[in-house]
């Protein structure tokens, strides 16, 4: 059996992780149904147009992180607390990743 080569704790973690992972993906499906826009992150492009004198682009990220940017979501929440409750159950949050919440201060 392939699992015999894995330490017992690792096997136990894998068995426990599947229900948690499945619940997180179910949660993502539910927030999509409520109108969240969820996408996979593509390659970043920096865009600059200093003093409107000409567009300059660079195929790279402006900011960097030790963790990859896996995707994004635009969700509707009454306040920051609700947004945190919503994203705390997403696959990335429960898989030891990080989810950043950036409140939209102004929308047109």
How would you summarize this macromolecular structure in one to three sentences?
The protein is of the alpha+beta class and 108 residues long.
How many β strands by DSSP? 4
Structural class: alpha+beta
- Indicate the CATH class: Alpha Beta
Instruction: Please state how the strands of the largest beta sheet are arranged side by side.
Output: 1-4
CATH domain topology:
Alpha-Beta Plaits
Content of β-strand: 5-15%
- Mind describing the biggest β-sheet? 2 strands, antiparallel
3D shape: extended
Can you count the helices? 3
Poorly predicted parts: none
Secondary structure layout:
Elements: H1 8-33, E1 37-40, E2 46-48, E3 56-58, E4 71-74, H2 80-87, H3 91-94
Antiparallel strand pairs: 1-4, 2-3
Descriptive notes:
There is one protein chain. This protein has a single domain, classed as Dimeric alpha+beta barrel (Alpha-Beta Plaits, 2-Layer Sandwich). The protein is 35% helix and 13% strand. It has a two-stranded antiparallel ribbon with strand order 1-4. The protein is extended.
Name its key features.
alpha+beta; two-stranded antiparallel sheet; 13% strand; 108 residues; Alpha-Beta Plaits
């Amino acid at each position: 059996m392939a699992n015999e080569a894995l330490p017992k704790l690792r096997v136990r973690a894998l068995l426990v992780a599947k229900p948690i992972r499945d619940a997180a993906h179910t949660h993502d499906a539910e927030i999509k149904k409520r109108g969240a826009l969820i996408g996979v992150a593509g390659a970043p492009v920096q865009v600059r147009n200093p003093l409107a004198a000409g567009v300059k682009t660079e195929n790279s990220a402006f900011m960097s992180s030790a963790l990859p940017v896996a995707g994004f979501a635009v969700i509707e929440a009454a306040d920051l607390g609700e947004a945190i409750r919503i994203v705390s159950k997403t696959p990335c949050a429960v898989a030891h990743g990080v989810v950043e919440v950036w409140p939209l201060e102004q929308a047109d």
